[in-house]
Design brief:
two-stranded parallel ribbon; 14% strand; 428 residues; PyrdxlP-dep_Trfase_major; 15 strands; aminotransferase; L-aspartate:2-oxoglutarate aminotransferase activity; seven-stranded mixed sheet; binds 4'-deoxy-4'-aminopyridoxal-5'-phosphate; pyridoxal phosphate; aspartate transaminase
Length: 428
């Protein structure tokens, strides 16, 4: 008998399946607004100019090697990442109650945080997720044996935040629940609470002793301002909460995956793939789990346990992506350049929102579309229904997830009018 005989075939991942369908489509008008990766106005993947510079510096740095990294990652990296989200003058830093470990991008940060909570948080505690949320959240928590429940978030009638529903659910949840909050640029809705709404959320969280679990995948990418996108997290720190913050550098550094053959000045073409230099295939996936505790001693205890957890899971985090981030965050000139690159990306996305909105208005498309410009970040929750999404795919070769979410990065100055005309047709 074969043990593997019992293993059923799983359904393909919805988003990656959508991309495969898009790739197989030969219509020249096709548009992919499914996947959440940034594209420039020619719809090409974008390597940030500052990342190219950092690449060149790293390749020419003869002091670097391929030794193991520390279990928690390089301190210069984890500290810079933690300062980026908390602010260098955060009371948590002043009081020495911040620790961090490098993770495999944002997904790894979520996983490590969830695994730690399963081990150490109140037994049987549930994690509350926004309805809807990034599809992976439920899978990540369930994987480590934490049950999830949902709090209302999206209000279809206003195409905005269901604040009352959210506060009510947080109020009703058992005390000391884990509450997952998107730090900014909520995925998939693009709807963030206002400052006043965050205050109300913090009030209930405080009253119910809930644990804030911030997922921050879009800092600087949403508004174009690193500080503005960190506002909610910093506000919770100010209010005295202890918390986890999961940081991803996939979007804001354009470090999504693996870098194949480097195209760096004179190095191009000089590298022989048969030499077996492992540095040709560079693991990027840079993330960080930042922990804010109440005391300095707690912080050290938590770090020691996180290191034990990390050791059993990945032993040592990958070096390359974190070296790029480390270099940029710790160098004044590169950092300034990075903030400009962030403005280029967020600016293009904001411009696409405006162009789409204007075109829909011009076509007198039925319904209200202000949410397209009011929402923030990579995604927009259009309010399109599953049958409309289906027509868009079959008739217009436009690919998006069934829930009507679009990635603004899939639009460009060349296809936005066609996209608007297609929407205009399917909603009539
Ligand atoms: N959280 C959210 C809300 C996300 O949208 C993403 C990216 N899709 C992530 C975490 C993590 O992504 P990555 O592992 O690529 O950093």
């Amino acid at each position: 008998v074969s043990f593997f005989q019992e293993i059923p075939q799983a359904a393909p991942d919805a988003i990656f399946h959508l991309t495969a369908q898009y790739k197989a489509d030969t219509d020249p008008r096709k548009i992919n607004v499914g996947v959440g990766a940034y594209r420039d106005d020619s719809l090409k993947p974008y390597i940030l100019p500052v990342v190219k510079k950092a690449d060149a510096i790293l390749f020419n740095d003869e002091t670097l090697d391929h030794e193991y990294q520390p279990i928690a990652g390089q301190k210069s990296y984890t500290t810079a990442a933690a300062k980026l989200i908390l602010g260098a003058d955060s009371p948590a830093f002043v009081e020495d109650r911040v620790v961090a470990v490098q993770t495999i991008s944002g997904t790894g940060a979520n996983h490590t945080a969830a695994a730690f909570l399963k081990k150490y948080h109140k037994q049987g505690a549930i994690c509350l997720l926004s309805k809807p949320t990034w599809a992976n959240h439920k899978a990540i928590f369930n994987n480590v044996g934490i049950e999830v429940a949902e709090y209302p978030y999206w209000k279809p009638s206003t195409r905005g935040l269901d604040l009352e529903g959210m506060l009510g659910a947080l109020e009703k949840a058992p005390e000391q629940s884990i509450v997952l909050l998107h730090a900014c640029a909520h995925n998939p809705t693009g709807v963030d609470p206002t400052k006043e709404q965050w205050q109300q959320i913090a009030d209930v969280m405080d009253k119910k002793k809930h644990f804030p679990f911030f997922d921050c995948a879009y800092q600087g990418f949403a508004s174009g301002s690193l500080d503005q996108d960190a506002w909610a997290v910093r506000y919770f720190v100010q209010r005295g909460f202890e918390m986890f913050i999961c940081q991803s550098f996939a979007k804001n550094f354009g470090l999504y995956g693996m870098y194949g053959i480097p195209e760096i000045g004179s190095w191009t073409g000089m590298i022989n793939l048969t030499t077996g230099l492992s540095c040709l295939f560079l693991g990027e996936r840079a993330g960080n789990l930042t922990v804010v505790t109440r005391t300095a001693q707690q912080a050290q205890h938590v770090l020691s346990q996180l290191e034990i957890l990390q050791r059993s899971e990945i032993s040592n985090p990958p070096a390359y992506g974190s070296r790029i981030v480390d270099l940029v965050l710790n160098d004044k000139a590169l950092y300034t350049e990075w903030t400009e690159n962030l403005k280029t990306m967020s600016g293009r996305i904001i411009e696409m929102r405006e162009r789409l909105f204007e075109k829909l208005k011009q076509l007198e498309t039925p319904g209200t579309w202000n949410h397209i410009v009011d929402q923030i970040g990579m995604f927009s929750f259009t309010g399109l229904t599953a049958p409309q999404v289906k027509v868009l795919k079959e008739k217009y070769h436009i690919y998006m997830t069934e829930n009507g979410r679009i990635s603004m990065a899939g639009l460009s100055s060349k296809n936005v009018d066609y996209f608007a005309e297609a929407i205009n047709d399917v909603v009539r």
